[in-house]
Amino acid sequence: MLLGPLVAPAWAYNPKLVSLNVGESTSDNFGGEKPFAVKVVDLKEFTEQGHWEGAMRTIHYKALVTVEVNGVQGVVGVGPFYMPVVINGLRVGGEITKGFSDSAFIPAMDKDVRLTAKDASLPWYEPGTFTFPIKDYRWGAAAFHNAWLGFHDMAKGKNYYHYGVDFDGYVPNHVELLSMIDQGTISKWGVGTRLTNDTLGLSIRYYHMIAKYLRSDLGNGSVLKQGEMFGYLGNGGTGDFGHLHVDAWYGEQVVNVHPMLVQAYFETYNEPLSFPGHKRHTFINSPIELDGSNSVAPEGRKIVSYLWQFTDGTTADTPTVKRTYAKPGTYSEELTVTDSTGAKATNSVMVFVFPPDAKVGAPYLVVLNHWPMRKIKPGQKVAISYASRDIWTDMTLDFGDGTVEKVTYSGATEHVWQNPGEYTLTFSGDGPGGHGVFKRRVIVEEQK
Question: For 35, 181, 310, 443, which has the most beta carbons within 10 A of its beta carbon?
């Protein structure tokens, strides 16, 4: 008996969407030649308490869906940074669960789980379909990097689990934006610029644009080639700093853009990606598990080592770690991964730690980034931007080369690294919720 409607796009080569309740099943070829019977066996949603704008809130930070494919079970992750997994010849991705839809901006779901699936003998998306949307970007070079369904905690009665991936940038009119897809026809030119390729059956939306930073020769109906520059990072619509929000659509159905961006990044930069999370929340003396197992390497390679470097100076070499914090504040925990070719990537997760009464928020960093993000040479001026919340005193910016500056809660500066190497840029300060430490990596390349 087949249960649960398939929401399948007309184009055959994209992954297909399917929505099911726990216990329901459906069957489809999912782009291949043989049928797959798919059943949702179990759903576990994970929450934690986080403080934002005057109150504690319950935040969904991940979900795990047990899926059965032709009698074989596997687990699919839903939430920030999860990639599709192969279960018995079918590649299955997590889109959204009912818990995440209890949000100010995501419509309520009539099913427990929405998944994406495609025969694993086929590529999730054809190689070469995407170009990374930011020129010369380095993932992790900025503090703000929420993945699809990454959360903001809102004060308007519900949390905000937003679609898309938010990439921090630098000040407007610096960072070049590129068309992710070929033959992208522009619609809704402006704050929410949208590019659509009907042959692909796919639209890409760039949000927080501002007209004066977009090319004046373009507008609704213009067609862009893949990789064509159409403007600079802006800051329109909402948001109090320049950043880029990218999401993807099949027709009018938003879909998980994270695998598309990872594919584009690998094909553009050929580097692994460290994904230790973005924001996590816990209380003092209450253990929390940090998870770097979503880190990924380019096709044909694998992650072979993990190195956590914690704010207290200790380290760990496992994908997941448990931490307990004795003092309130915000801790920046770095994860460096190495793939089978020796290539490395570093990123960090902000861990907000609260006292039991949690009457105030922990220190929070909105912006910490540098420009340019790649191709930095010794002796070159690098622009640095930073902005914090709930940090009031003793603010410093440590450049990782022995230079430390006193700064305010928000601003911009320039720095010159004289020697090649990898430097940790650290912003720190104190607020009513404790001490906050926030880190990013700057890579200065050998002069050629």
Answer: 181
Mean pLDDT within 235-249: 70
pLDDT tens for each residue of 401-428: 999 999 999 888 999 999 999 999 999 9
- Expressed in percent and rounded to 5, the helix, strand and coil fractions of the chain are 5, 50, 50
What are the E-state strand segments in 239-361? Answer: 243-250, 253-255, 279-283, 288-291, 303-309, 315-316, 320-323, 329-339, 344-354
- The predicted pLDDT at position 153 comes to 59
Residue 267, H or E segment: helix 258-269
Among residues 287, 422, 274, 394, the alpha carbon closest in space to that of 336 is found at: 274
Is 180 within 8 Å of 230 (Cβ atoms)? no
Q: Which of 142, 178, 147, 207 is nearest to 373 (CA)?
A: 142
Reference 275, options 293, 263, 289; nearest CA is 293
Measure the CA–CA gap between 388 and 438, rounded to whole angstroms.
10
Q: Alpha-carbon torsion 249, 250, 252, 256, what sign?
A: negative
Place of tokens 């068309």: 179
Mean pLDDT of 124-152: 81
Res 172: pLDDT: 62
* Model pLDDT for residues 354-399, shown as the tens digit of each residue: 999 888 889 988 888 898 999 999 999 999 989 888 999 999 999 9
Dihedral of CA 31/36/40/44: which sign?
A: negative
Look up residue 332 and give its two tokens.
């920046």
Please report the pLDDT score of residue 6 as a whole number: 44
